[in-house]
Write a structure and sequence with these properties.
The complex is a heterodimer of chains A (about 250) and B (about 110). With about 250 residues, chain A is mainly alpha-helical. Chain A has 11 helices and 7 strands. Chain B is about 0% helix and about 45% strand. Classes of the chains: A mainly alpha (about 250), B mainly beta (about 110).
Chain lengths: ~250, ~110
């Protein structure tokens, strides 16, 4: 009886005990590639990020380390609670956006381009400091409307194929799309190395891929919709562990 | 795409017993552009792959490989050799643009 009631109230939602990272949908070979740091190509960006963290930038001639010191201490757990609310812009901001804000306001340096190797390297390095820690979305009521907006985008049918994110990742998770298993769409390992891309990429790049896949016009990189969707996805993935840099097929 | 092409190797000193078979793993940051792809403007992106990868152990060549366009970006190369003497492992690779990159790691043999 109790079971039936639970099912009734949670239609098409993945029950929390069945919440699984995309890692679990991969072949053992791809899993091994991610787990072993010496074969995970994402580590190349991680190492690059470590170097950039120390490198003074802009007219302020400050490095990330000048303010934040050792990343292993200061950045530990940070990626588990992003996106967070930015007081200045009164909007949520993702990790890459925060790095660029630091560049503008603290380092007096021009922002790094979306999907540039430098920005991906720094994001990877910062997010990696939370490796193995559970996602714990920021409790901040000011984020609620943005998170709800993200949920609306997730559930909204888009493009010529009239599919929503939920059509695949809630209703058909675990089934196949062509030869590939459809994962539950938890953003646990971004930036991640995608074998299809032959490089590392951000969640925004991944979302653009899905938007093009349903034949919708993708938002531009840096569009606020992506941050709202990330907010929703991170609350949906709460409790799963950060894997950055993950490897995906 | 791949991060800046500077050579890097895990600089931690590794130890092994004399006569032991050791596995050496290298992950090389390189785009391995095949020469078959077109850019957004329709023009073919020129081929740029690592042509040859060499590992020297205390000055002596112990491993060499020729690479081809079918090999993925950021190639992972693993091979074995016998630990003979304390010294330096040097890695060197050259790509289509003639750029020679090198990295090294120390090994202590007991």
């Amino acid at each position: 009886m109790l079971m039936l009631m639970l099912w009734g109230s949670a239609v098409a939602q993945t029950p929390p005990q069945d919440k699984r990272s995309g890692f679990e949908f991969m072949s053992p070979q791809t899993q091994a590639m991610q787990t072993d740091a010496s074969s995970n190509p994402g580590m190349l960006w991680m190492i690059d990020g470590e170097r950039l963290w120390q490198q003074p930038q802009g007219s302020a001639d400050k490095s990330c380390a000048s303010c934040h010191g050792t990343a292993a201490k200061s950045m530990r757990g940070v990626a588990t609670r992003y996106p967070r609310f930015d007081e200045r812009s009164r909007k949520p901001i993702d990790l890459a956006g925060q790095i660029n804000l630091c560049r503008q306001h603290r380092q007096s340096a021009p922002p790094l381009a979306h999907e540039s190797d430098e920005l991906l390297a720094l994001s990877t390095y910062v997010a990696h400091q939370s490796h193995g820690m559970p996602i714990t979305p920021a409790v901040d009521s000011r984020l609620r409307p943005f998170r709800e907006n993200g949920r609306r985008w997730f559930e909204r049918r888009l493009g010529q194929l009239q599919l929503s994110c939920a059509s695949c990742h809630d209703d058909r998770a675990g089934a196949r799309l062509g030869g590939s298993v459809i994962p539950q769409a938890h953003p646990t390992g971004y930036p991640l190395y995608r074998l299809e891309w032959q490089t590392i990429g951000s969640l925004q790049r991944r979302l653009r891929g899905c938007l093009v896949g349903v034949r919708a016009e993708p938002f531009e990189f840096g569009a606020p919709e992506y941050v709202d969707i990330e907010l929703f996805l991170m609350s949906r993935a709460a409790g799963l562990k950060i894997e950055t840099p993950a490897v995906r097929p | 795409m791949s991060p800046s092409h500077d050579a890097r190797a895990d600089q931690r000193t590794k130890t092994a017993a004399r006569g032991e078979i050791i596995e050496i793993r290298a992950l090389v940051a390189h785009p391995m552009e095949t020469g078959y792809r077109e850019g957004p403007n329709g023009a073919v992106i020129p081929r740029n792959i690592i042509k040859r990868f060499v590992c020297k152990y205390a000055g002596e060549e112990v491993f060499a490989a020729e690479l081809f366009p079918a090999i993925a970006a950021n190639p992972y190369i693993a091979f074995t050799t016998v630990a003979t003497t304390t010294g330096t492992l040097t890695f060197e690779w050259i790509d289509d643009q003639g750029e020679v990159q090198a990295a090294s790691a120390e090994i202590t043999v007991t």
